[in-house]
Amino acid sequence: MSHDERPGVASAAAPRRAGGADTDLGAWRGVWVFVELERGRVHPVSWELIGEGRKLADHLGVSLSGVVMGPDEAATSQACDEAFRHGADAVHLVRDPVLAHYRTDPYTQSLTELVERNQPEILLLGATTLGRDLAGAVATTLGTGLTADCTELRIDDETRSLAATRPTFGGTLLCTIHTLEYRPQMATVRPRVMAMPKRDPSRTGTIVEERVALAEDDVVTKILSYIPDADADKAQLAYADVVVAGGRGLGKPENFRLVRELAEVLGGEYGGSRPVAQAGWVSADRQIGQTGRTIRPKLYIAAGISGAIQHRVGVEGADVIIAINTDPKAPIMDFATFAVVGDALQILPALTEALRERLGRRVAA
Ligand SMILES: Cc1cc2nc3c(=O)[nH]c(=O)nc-3n(C[C@H](O)[C@H](O)[C@H](O)COP(=O)(O)OP(=O)(O)OC[C@H]3O[C@@H](n4cnc5c(N)ncnc54)[C@H](O)[C@@H]3O)c2cc1C
After folding, report:
1. Residues with CB under 6 A from ligand 1
2. Among the atoms of ligand 1, which is closest to the Cα of residue 330?
3. Ranges of each domain in the chain
4. Which one, of 187, 203, 239, lies nearest residue 80 by Cα?
5. Which of 80, 120, 146, 359 could form a disulfide with 186 if both were Cys (CB 3.0 to 4.6 A apart)?
6. DSSP summary character for residue 109
7. Would you give per-residue pLDDT tens digits along the chain (365 residues)?
8. Does domain 237-359 have CATH number 3.30.70.20?
9. Residue 168 backbone phi and psi in degrees, to 5
């Protein structure tokens, strides 16, 4: 890597070959996190992955780098600064007007070229719509292994490989996958699975300016207009501090009102287990669990939810779990912080009433 004139800014050298079984895997060093910047906003899962990447990099004794791509100066500079504040040592930055909107081809080309050029041993992306698309395309182009939707990442000291754990067989088992013969080792992680790292405003790092030969004419996908998702801000379950959820134990859809009211009094969000989402008691984007949202609230109240493993994996990052269930032997009672044995149809309205008085919040009837 050669350095240009500006302090803290290095420019990258010529491409090398991607890491297959025939290449020197020891030459691949460093942990990378793709920083998902879209329409000027970084998805918070990027910082969660920087926090996780920091632990992996420290364990390996290597540096942690972010990858920032975008069209303009302001948003990309801000993303670089935030990456440093959340724990990155360096950021590889590609600025190009072709990267104005996410499109698979130019983003895949850019990330693939950066990886071939710099040879990181680990590459992490958020398991968001964008991240899933990009990770699959990059892994396929590089011909390397990708473990999707991981719930735990650690380093196996014997092989120096990434041990990427994810649910399998419908969430009934966890498997740990190692990519031993190819590099980089790629993994995606869903939002809120990893904890948000502490932000240090005084932290800085090195920006590595990268150039990729992108040409708009080579990109077959054209963005004709942008239609924002009208529901995008509605269910902010993943990042809510308080979540109240209901399950089949509520008996019928009308009773779900009790869950919504308690959530509203607490200033939180509401959600449901898979059966109630499938039955239409709540919208699909409010389903919590392995095939729904992963949440990490300060307080999670689960009413009439049994706590099957597929639900548990989506909520166990909560600081405090209160379970309301008529069955003291329900699985959720084993991992709840407070297990309340009783009828949710009586306990929920009583709680709402008591908290409404205490917190002074109004709930529309
Ligand atoms: C591949 C796969 C993916 C899945 N993904 C998800 C997922 O993302 N999220 C998810 O939630 N599930 C998921 N599931 C389904 C999961 O296995 C369970 O079937 C589901 O979580 C059960 O939902 P539940 O707790 O609402 O219902 P139930 O299992 O029927 O439990 C109802 C509970 O309510 C209690 N109860 C009854 N009456 C009352 C009352 N009056 N007051 C209080 N408690 C009462 C009962 O004791 C019981 O514990 C998945 C399954 C598979 C196979």
Report:
1. 170-171, 247-249, 273-276, 287-292, 304-306, 308, 310-311, 314, 324-327, 330, 343-345
2. 49
3. 2-218, 237-359
4. 203
5. 146
6. H
7. 333 333 333 333 333 345 665 578 889 999 999 999 998 999 999 999 999 999 999 999 999 999 999 998 999 999 999 999 999 999 999 999 999 999 999 999 999 999 999 999 999 999 999 999 999 999 999 999 999 999 999 999 999 999 999 998 877 889 999 999 999 999 999 999 999 999 999 999 999 999 999 999 999 999 999 888 776 656 689 999 999 999 999 999 999 999 999 999 999 999 999 999 999 999 999 999 999 999 999 999 999 999 999 999 999 999 999 999 999 999 999 999 999 999 999 999 999 999 998 887 655 54
8. no
9. -145, 175
Residues listed for the chain: 365
* Dist. CA 107–CA 138, nearest whole Å: 9
Q: 129 — alpha (psi -120 to 50), left (phi > 0) or beta?
A: alpha
What is the separation of C-alpha 35 from the centre of its chain, rounded to a whole number of angstroms?
A: 11
CB-CB neighbours of 292 under 10 Å? 21
| Distance from residue 280's CA to the centre of ligand 1 (Å) | 14
| CATH architecture for residues 2-218 | 3-Layer(aba) Sandwich (3.40)
Pairing of strands 152-156, 185-189: unpaired
**CA torsion angle for 34, 39, 41, 47 (degrees, to 10)?**
-10
The C-alpha atoms of residue 148 and residue 166 are separated, in whole angstroms, by 7
Give bridge partners of residue 245 from the DSSP assignment: 271, 302
Count of helices and strands (H, E) across the chain = 9, 19
Residues in CB range of 157: below 8 A, 6 or more apart: none
Closest CA to 50 of 142, 125, 152: 125
Given phi > 0 = left and psi -120 to 50 = alpha, else beta, which region is 149? left
- Structure token pair of residue 115: 């990886």
Residue 311 and residue 306: Cα distance in Å, rounded?
9
- Please, what is the Cα angle at 66 between 65 and 67, to 5 degrees? 125
Pocket mutation for ligand 1, best pick of 173, 244, 248 (most atoms within 8 Å of C-beta)? 248
What's the whole-model pTM score? 0.83
What type of residue is 236? Q
